[in-house]
Amino acid sequence: MHFSKTTEYAIRVLSYLHRYSSTSHSVNVLHQELNLPYKYLTKMMTELVKKGLVTASRGREGGLSLAKNADEIHLCDILEAIGEPLESERCILGFEKCDASNPCALHDQWAPPKAMIEAMLTNTTLASLLHDKETKL
Fold it and tell me: pTM (2 decimals)?
C-alpha cells in the first residue's frame, strides 16, 4: 500500500498539530517545520478546514489547530477529507469489475490483506500514531 503525497502531507501536518497542540500554527510555520511545499500546503489546509478536521482562526493569536480531539480522527477520516476515500471495491489489478463471481487472478489472495488494511485505516487514530515520542513527522 502506498499513500499519495497529499495523504502523506495531511497525516504529517495533523500529527504536528496534535503534537504541538498547545498553540495555533501558521501555514508558514508548518511549511518551515515540515518542509512541505507552501502553495500545496495552503490548498490542502483549506480542504482540511472545510472538512472539519482543522480550525483556522485569524488575528494575532490566530492560526491552525485541530478541530477535533486526536482520538476522534481516524486515518480513514483523513483520507476522506482530502478526497481519497477507502476503495473497498477497487480491483488490485485495475479491472472495472472484480468480485466473487468474476474474480481477477489476485482476488482471493488480496482479500485478507485488503481487509487488514481497511481495518487499520478505520481503527487507527491520530493520537495512536504519536504514542512513541520519537515518531517522525
Answer: 0.84
